[in-house]
Amino acid sequence: MKRRTIALFGAGFHGLNAVLPALLRLREKLDLVAVVEPAESNRMRAAQAAPNAAVYASPDELFAAHSPDIVYVATLPHLHLPVALQALAAGCHVICEKPLAPTVEECETMIAAAHRAERHLVTMFENRYLIRNRTVREWCLSGRIGRVEAIHLQHFWPGPITEPRRTNLLNASGALDCGIHYLDLARYFVDAGDWATIHAVGQWFDEPDLENPPHITITARLSNGPLVTSTESMSYRIAYANRTGDRSGTTSLNVIGTDGIIESVADGVRLRLTDGTEETQTDERMSHVDEIPLVVSDLLTLLETGTAASGFLPMGTDGLHAQRITAEANRQARASRNG
Length: 339
Known about the structure:
The chain has 339 residues and is of the alpha/beta class.
């Protein structure tokens, strides 16, 4: 496989602690040539973490010196669009952290720019690659549980604790900052297109100044039929953890078909069929540093062979569909607050 070059845009909390070490794990097939970060303190930390990479304060400095094959965008969401457009114009493929962009219109602009540039635009939905989620998709698409009628998801955790990171993320996407992963998984499990209907309400608990709700419940229908309910919370346990940093929470999944069900169990998922058959798939716990290389490697295979090895590399259109339900659900939740 040809060794590709990549530049990282954004060495803040996530970029420095998750993305950068994840990219360094791929050094045998991917050369991290540069990091772009406007904050001097972050640039200094990035230089220490990746001493072989050049560190720049602006995209202009990077593109004056390098022509990387790939640009990884790990900036704050409001910068995703301008950074991606500049990278695509420079001939780079782009991997973008979720959300793809803060608005549906910006997502559409990015997708159109990638199409014009004939470059790939990837959305970092790394949860697709976890063994348990790949197994759920296989069970659904192979017809093991018959026709999938309903998908129920719950993801409860406190979210970021420290300020201003907590307020910044919650004002951007509310509980769906992380919950957007689970909205993508619902489509992924059944190979769906877009969302047909969306209904949502939210709750703010003791954070009334937040624009979007830290707790939201969504009832929606996918274009290929299944009903989806999703409850996402960045308030769970923070309510009694006194904001001490306890990041524990609970996640649950139930998929109901005409011939069986899929349900989450400790460290995995279980299949139960109407004929009495049961099957369990366990999974190991992984961090972002473990997960991100799976998506990047899939893109590298696509560039090398013309086909992504997984068959489900999350592209810009996946980011668009996820942002469409995120934006509409938050809009309805804000309206429900006033009503």
